[in-house]
């Protein structure tokens, strides 16, 4: 091939390569959920769910007031129900594109595949749990309380040390179990869920239960424990990591869920929802040391 024919060939090949690169770049852009500015495309995000176009949110069964009202998470009534819908709307899922399902607390934070996109049931955030699941940003910092029967000899407990001799229970894998074991006594009995835990106190299988303050007050108000009494909030039990929404490990929705929670905190929505749904369940409960 002569020098002139080589130059002509180069002139022909270079435009072809440039066109191929342009087409390749366009193809890559079409398959991404991010725009040119790197921000997540809400429409693309809705296709990342287990049921494309629908956000599947899980919670416990039953779920309790004031987190949910009348065991109906789909109603939007109750702090976590309202939070779930506020977050989902920020993520591009209106209420009619949200589907609810039920799971236990323990299974939701266990390693493995999940049948939900998000799970909201007072999950406290911890480094250990992050090994198995993802979390959104925190939306509430809970405390723990002790609930007993009104006729229990521990109903007049004034300090944590007064509970040392009690048979105490908590739900399996919960922060209440970890705290009670560390601060009250080593021998803490475990139960699968809150229903079994309340029944154990009511039947005198155990003397006291440790659970979030909000749930403890609700158990008393709804007579899940006969003549129940909330002895007090446990000093030092505020979880500074807070509670967050659980997502499957490596979920493509995690960043968007955290961004939604952060925006709702900044615009005052989180505080307004806390004041509406949680205030009466925390202000009048004494603290025991």
What does this 3D model show about the protein?
Residues 1-30 form the signal peptide. This is Amino acid ABC transporter substrate-binding protein. Residues 54-281 form the Solute-binding protein family 3/N-terminal domain. It holds the Pfam family SBP_bac_3. The chain is of the alpha/beta class. The chain has helices at 3-30, 42-45, 79-90, 105-108, 127-130, 175-183, 194-202, 213-221, 254-266, 269-277, and strands at 55-59, 98-102, 118-124, 133-135, 144-149, 168-171, 188-191, 208-212, 228-234, 243-248, 287-288. It folds into 2 domains: 42-141 and 240-288, Periplasmic binding protein-like II (D-Maltodextrin-Binding Protein, domain 2), CATH 3.40.190.10; 144-234, Periplasmic binding protein-like II (D-Maltodextrin-Binding Protein, domain 2), CATH 3.40.190.10. The strands form 2 sheets. It has a 6-stranded mixed β-sheet with strand order 7-6-8-5-9-11, sandwiched between helices. A 5-stranded mixed β-sheet has the order 2-1-3-10-4, covered by helices on one side. The longest helix has 28 residues, at 3-30. It is elongated, with a radius of gyration of 26 Å. The relative contact order is 0.16.
As a whole number of angstroms, the C-alpha radius of gyration is: 26 Å
Shape: elongated
CATH topology of the largest domain: D-Maltodextrin-Binding Protein, domain 2
Task: Give the SSE string.
Answer: HHEHEHEHEEEHEHEHEEHHE
Q: Supply the CATH superfamily name of the largest domain.
A: Periplasmic binding protein-like II
Indicate the CATH class of the largest domain.
Alpha Beta
How large a portion of the residues is in β-strands, by DSSP E?
A: 15-25%
* Strand order, largest beta sheet: 7-6-8-5-9-11
> Count of DSSP helices?
10
Uncertain residue ranges = 1-38
Summarize the main sheet.
Answer: 6 strands, mixed
Helical content stands at: 25-40%
């Amino acid at each position: 091939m002569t020098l002139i024919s080589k130059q002509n060939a180069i002139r022909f090949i270079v435009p072809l390569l440039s066109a191929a690169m342009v087409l390749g770049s366009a193809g890559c852009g079409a398959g991404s959920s991010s725009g040119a500015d790197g921000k997540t495309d809400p429409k693309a995000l809705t296709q990342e769910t287990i049921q494309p176009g629908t956000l599947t949110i899980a919670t416990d069964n039953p779920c309790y007031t004031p987190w949910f009202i009348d065991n109906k998470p789909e109603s939007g009534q109750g702090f976590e129900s309202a939070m779930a819908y506020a977050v989902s709307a920020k993520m591009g899922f209106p209420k009619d594109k949200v589907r609810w399902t039920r799971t236990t607390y323990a299974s939701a934070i266990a390693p493995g595949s999940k049948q939900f996109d998000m799970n909201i049931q007072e999950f406290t955030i911890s480094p250990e749990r992050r090994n198995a699941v993802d979390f959104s940003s925190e939306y509430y910092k809970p405390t723990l309380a002790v609930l007993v029967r009104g006729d229990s000899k521990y109903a007049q407990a004034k300090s944590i040390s007064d509970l040392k001799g009690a048979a105490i229970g908590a739900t399996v894998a919960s922060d209440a179990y970890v705290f009670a074991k560390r601060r009250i006594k080593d021998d803490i009995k475990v139960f699968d869920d809150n229903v079994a835990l309340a029944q154990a106190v009511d039947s005198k299988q155990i003397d006291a239960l440790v659970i979030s303050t909000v749930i403890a007050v609700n158990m008393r108000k709804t007579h899940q424990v006969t003549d129940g009494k909330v002895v007090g909030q446990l000093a030092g039990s505020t979880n500074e990591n807070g509670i967050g929404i659980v997502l499957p490990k490596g979920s493509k929705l995690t960043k968007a869920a955290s961004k939604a929670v952060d925006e709702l905190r900044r615009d005052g929505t989180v505080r307004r929802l806390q004041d509406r749904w949680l205030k009466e369940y925390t202000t009048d409960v004494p603290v025991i040391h």
